[in-house]
Amino acid sequence: MNGLATAYLDEFRRIFRLKPAFSTLIVAALIYAVFYPQPYLNEALRDVPVAVVDQDRTDSSRQFARLLDATPDVAVAEVLPDLPSAQHEVFTRAISGIVVIPQHFERELLHGRPSPVALYGDASYFLIYSRVSGAVSAVAQTLGAQVEVSRLIARGIDPPIAEAAADPLPLVAVPLFNPQGGYATYILPAAFVLLVQQMLLIGTGLLNTLPGARSEHRKAEDRPGPAATVIGKALAHLSLEAVIIPVYLIVLPYLYGVPRLGSVPAVLAMSVPFILAVSGLGFIVAAIFKKPLAVQLAMAAMGLPFMFLAGFSWPIEAIPKAVQIASVLLPSTSAIDGIVRVSQLGGSLADVSRQFLTLWALALIYGAIAVVIEMRRRAT
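and the corresponding C-alpha cells:
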C-alpha cells in the first residue's frame, strides 16, 4: 500500500512539475474548453446566399423566389437577368448557388405539366450544398402543391379533397434528441470525449518519456513494484480527470445548450474505465515511441484517424468490417458510443453494457501490458 501511495504522489507531482505534461493535461484542457466549441455555437447553417435567374418574370416565378428567401436555410442575395451574370457571382464567392426559373414556368404549371427548376450549387462545401438543395426542393414541392390545389378547386373539387389529393402523404419530421437539428448538438458530445482521450494519451506518453518522469532517483528497495507503479500512476491520472471529465461532459454541454437526458452518475461511471484504459494505453505509446517529441507528433497525427474510426464524423457502416473490429482497441470508440447514448439519449448503464464492459476489458488488458513494460524496463 505504501508503494501504491508513493507511485500515486510521485505521478501527481510530476503532472504539475513537468511543463510539457502540465501544458498538455491542464493548460490545453482549458484552451480547448473555451475555444473548440466556438465555431459550432450557431448550431445550424442559415441564410446561405444564392442568386435567382428569373427567365419567366411572372407572378409564379416571383412567388417562388419569395418563398425561397423566406426559408431559414437560404437567402436570395440577388435576382439576376441571365446565367452568365450569376456564374460570375459564383466565381467571386459572392453566392453559393444559382436557382434558374425557366421561361414559361407559370404557363407549364397552370397546364399541369412539369416545369423543372434548375439548381447550380457549390458542392465544394457539402454542408452548404445540402442546405441549398433541401431548401429549393422544399419550396418546389410547396409551390407545386399550391398550384395543384388551385387547379383542382377551379374544376369544382372541394378544397379539403383538393388539398388531400395534392399532398396525400404529408410528412411530419420530428428531430429526436436534437430539436434544433444543429451541428453542435451532434458533434460536440463525441468531440469532447475524443479531446479528453487525446490530451490524456499525449500527457501520459510524455510523463513516461520525459527526463525525470520515473523514480530512478529512489533506492531500489524504496521504489514501488511494477504493478504498484502502474496502478498508482493510473489513479493519479484518474484523480486529475475527475475534475476535467465533469467539466467536459457535464458543464460544457450545459453551457453550450447541448440537450442532456441522461443521469450524471451514469456518465461518470462510463468515464472511469475510459480514463483507466487511456492511461494504460499511454504506457504502450511511451514504450513504442520512447521520446517526448515522437509521442507528440505521432498522437497529433493520429487524432484525425481516431475521429473517423469513432464513427461520428463518418458513418460506421461505411467503414470496412476489419477496420471496425480494430477500432474497438481504441478506448474512444466504445466511450463515445456509450457516453453519448447515456448523456444525450437518456440510456442507462444496462443499455450500454457492451461498451461499458469493453472499456473495462481494455483497461485491464492495457494495464497488464503496462505492468509487463515496467518490469522489462527495470530488467534492462
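(Above: one complete record from the training split.) Confidence is low (pLDDT under 50) at residues 213-217.
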